[in-house]
Design goal:
single chain; alpha+beta; 3 strands; 36% helix; 25% strand; elongated; cytoplasm; methyltransferase; SAM-dependent_MTases_sf; calmodulin-lysine N-methyltransferase activity; nucleus
Amino acid sequence: MLKDSGMAINFAPYRSKSLNRFVSIAETYPFECSVFEHYDEDVFNKHLEAKQINKHYSSDLHHPILVILRKRQKSDQ
């Protein structure tokens, strides 16, 4: 449960579009969702480095995506 002005922060990789499905479902409830792939310079640079040097690295499985969920105001619903 979130307060009326509440916000939830979630980090998760896309994982074969399961993150996209989560966001789609959350948006059917009283939430606005913002998704960010490039939210921190250090994290993004490590992501790019891992893509270059680690053959087992998969952006889909390993790169954390930032999702911010904000509860919509009653007048926005």
